[in-house]
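Instructor's aside before we start: the two examples that follow are unrelated to each other. I chose them only because their records fit on one page, so don't look for a connection. First example below.
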Amino acid sequence: MLLGLSIIAPILPYYAESFNVNYTLVGLVVAAFGIARMFIDLPAGFLAQRYNKKSLMLVGLILVSSSSIMAGLAQNYWILLFARIIEGFGSAIYVTIATIYIALVASPERRGFLMSIYSGLLLLGAIFGPSFGGFIANSYGITAPFFAYAIISASGIIPTLILPHVNNTNDEEHFKIQELYHQAWYSLKDPKFIPVLPSIFSLFFIRTGVRNTLVPLFSGNDLGLNEFDIGILLTIAGIATAITMVPIGLISDKIGRRTPLLLSLIISAPITLWIAITTNIIYISLVIFIYGAIIGLSGPIAAYVTDIAPKDKLEIYMGVYRTIGDIGFVCGPLLMGFVVDLTSVTAIRGESLIELVGWPPFAVAACIMLLTGLILLKAPDLRQKD
């Protein structure tokens, strides 16, 4: 799933821009995926309490694969946008339930380590996808990565079929919307969960707003890099994140989850500003590597939510976690695209006019990281629970 998703990361802003739309609408295409997930995450967690998790995950994979083909064949901006929404539905179903599945099979005393391995394995897809996607786009055209995405996501059907069965925490047969809202509201009133929510938002915000939107736009417009170079940059960030994510999960089982998350948010703020003053591919590659390594410290976030959640409400807390994350996923590219539209400066490169991104959107992102880091200080420093 993540290999396929990251394959289109280097080209998605440019593909959307090819339909002659402004940067805000470019951000909307990146965000549409998250908008769709935002509305499905919580119902997916609720359904996972009652229905076969494997069957639901298979539905998610099929939706992602078919929508990728639709995006690659899009004849206009609105078809692309619609395809991204369907892709978001499928991703929400699959990823939310997969996260629940891992949380259920991970023992409490090794939860941080095992869930960070899970996140690290997702990153293995994210590591190689951008450079692979950039290579495919340069070789076969800008729509080719979408068809590769369809094939790769469909290949996830086989390992999903052979997963062992996991019992549901609630065996009621009917979907009760009133109970869904009641359980979600219960989690949002949990004093242990409330100060963690802004950090969840921020971590997803920077993933799409900084890494998937600002970095490609800044690298292409300000530094003049091509799609392949941008793919390499995103791969470097993914490698650095994977290097730190699994070890920090093991460490969090000993020292708690809050400290690594706090360090990730506070330190990544100045590094985000640092990206905006880079001047060539070597310089930005170094900064992106450091940035990715610091983001990897956020690996225990899903384990933190699992620690907080009552055992009979794990699926709901995970659904809320994914929903808040996807609100950040949506707001990131939309806000960053909007700030770029407001602050970009027109320049001439060769015979072409370009819009330079500059430092203001990076500064906005850095402020959001610092603010949510300060709020996290009020969260309990939970460790594994019995």
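Example two begins here.
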Amino acid sequence: MSGAESARTYGNLIGGEWRAARSGETFDSVNPARRSEVLGHFARSSQSDIEDAVSAAVAAQPAWARTPMPGRSEVIARAGRLLEERKEELARLMTREMGKVLTEARGDVQEGIDMAKYMAGQGRNPVGEVVPSELRDKRCFTERVPIGVVACITPWNFPMAIPCWKLMPALLAGNAVVFKPAEDTPLVAIRLAEILVEAGLPSGVLNLVTGYGEECGAPLVENSLVRAISFTGSVEVGQQIASTCGRLGKRVSLELGGKNAMVVTADADLELALDGALWGAFGTAGQRCTATSRLIVEAPVLEAFTEQLLGRVSKLRLGDGLDPATDVGPVINQTQLKRIHAYTEIGLQEAARLLTGGSIAADGQLGEGNFYRPTLFADVKPEMRIAQEEIFGPTLVVIPAVDFSDAIRIANGTRYGLSLSIYTRDLARAFQAVDRLESGIVYVNAPTIGAEIQLPFGGTKWTGNGHREAGTTAFDEFTEWKTVYIDYSGHLQRAQIDTDAS
């Protein structure tokens, strides 16, 4: 498909029906590798569309909550099987809409499949505990209950995996959901919603609205009938959402950003570390909240390691993610392209040494898309902006460290705390790093990317607000604890009041 004239128009999913925005306005989703390729026209939603979606969710949620959890899990399981059947089709669509190379897009879809299978399996697990009472003839237990209507606001960099991280546990818990995907990747989100409906999700339990953050995301956060917000995105937007939710007394979970570091010690397996640095920094064109954006190298191996890394980075091939020869695909849009280049200019102003890259690729077919040349800076000081601020692009900075303690200090020296890693052959150092690194995720002899869905995902400091996604903790976001006391003694009993126990 190429050109706006041949593209299909898509609506919002509200109450089981696909509808145009009330305003009739649309926006386009384009291929970041070829901006002339329009994948579709999408509903440009506003407050009235949000109100419709929330009303549909409110109406549908009680019946869904009364559906036994094993029944809800069957819907999730069927969705997982459909995702698996359509994995290649979805991956190719993702590459066209988001830009990541096809092997990575397949991995993105696989995460969605894995999350569906994992959460479906949780449908028959315990969701509470029985606790002994201090009084006779009394039973006490706890259970997890749905919050009600929740909003899931997701980013463009993992357009299948992150929505599945949120939607699968939210739905399994018995909530109804209003799902607002990023405006850069609405078509992948629509395909996911279609699959959930096909899997048997009742009308109104999942509602999807497309559009821009300020036009439909903000009204969704403000809506008084939405009881909880789950958001993944920038620190700036996350702080605005947190402020709104604090004012309105809403549950909010935030996964915001990172300035992740990989430490390479003098005793590390340097070949392994090179592979890790290349994958961690330039996979998904660096557009991951867990991307390896800082490389902290101990002095004895700094020169040799940097020289070898330069050789590897210089050979990375830019191109369309559907081309098997491509190593690094485009970045998501022109705004981000300009932002990445602005950080290159900042690095040069800060007197960092540009070793390779540092420019927008405008030659030939690359000029038709949003391509930035893989960029490597050396002689970077920990306090420089390029070592402190999230660039979210194919840029890696090399920071010298005097020794192990200095490396740990530098790694911890940012406002973020999502993912940190260390390469070392020394077991004692590895465990010391695990103890001392200030982040929600720590890797040993692996880069800062590669989270698995059966473990909690999230960070410390400015990376979020303490919540974790995935793993058994996924339910924490989307449920409330209910404590139940049943007294069958036949007379008034008073806890904590002295009584004759005879």
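The mean pLDDT is 96.
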